[in-house]
Write a structure and sequence with these properties.
Elements lengths: L8 E5 L3 H13 L3 E5 L2 H11 L3 E4 L8 H10 L8 E5 L4 H10 L3 E4 L7 H16 L1
Parallel strand pairs: 1-2, 1-3, 3-4, 4-5
Helix pairs in contact: 2-3
Length: 133
């Protein structure tokens, strides 16, 4: 974990090692702290223990998928208010509607744009902070 000047802790849930490394490296370079999970089950456990400021959730995961992990996190009073953003290559309009109806707080498509990605994550964190104020 790398210290972030604004203290934002991001849980990246991604089973593809290259995608995980890229997201982690870009976020850490931009000053975020990061946690990592390769499965939905691990994501739920880490979120319950660490209470990150934001979760970036892949949808296609081994074990439980990202939508099921989202549902489990929303059902738990300890994690229900953590903002969760879908981070996925599924970019069809119907996919986005499915993510919205599932209860994700936002959507970032893969492959990530390394120049835009930190700003997208920061914007989701800021939107979530304003929503809690």
């Amino acid at each position: 974990m790398t210290a972030a000047p604004d203290g934002k802790l991001i849980l990246i849930v991604e089973d593809n090692e290259k995608n995980l490394k890229l997201a982690r490296d870009v976020l850490q370079f931009s000053g975020f702290q990061t946690l990592e999970a390769g499965t939905g089950e691990a994501a739920v456990g880490i979120a319950r223990q660490q209470h990150p400021d934001l979760i970036l959730m892949d949808i296609e995961l081994p074990g439980i998928d990202g939508i099921t992990a989202l549902q489990q996190l929303r059902a738990d009073v300890e994690t229900a208010r953590i903002p969760i953003v879908a981070l996925t290559a599924s970019a069809m309009t119907t996919d986005r509607a499915r993510f919205d109806s599932a209860g994700f707080d936002g959507y970032i498509s893969k492959p990530i744009d390394i120049k835009a990605f930190p700003g997208q994550v920061r914007a989701h964190c800021e939107r979530a902070r304003r929503g809690r104020a």
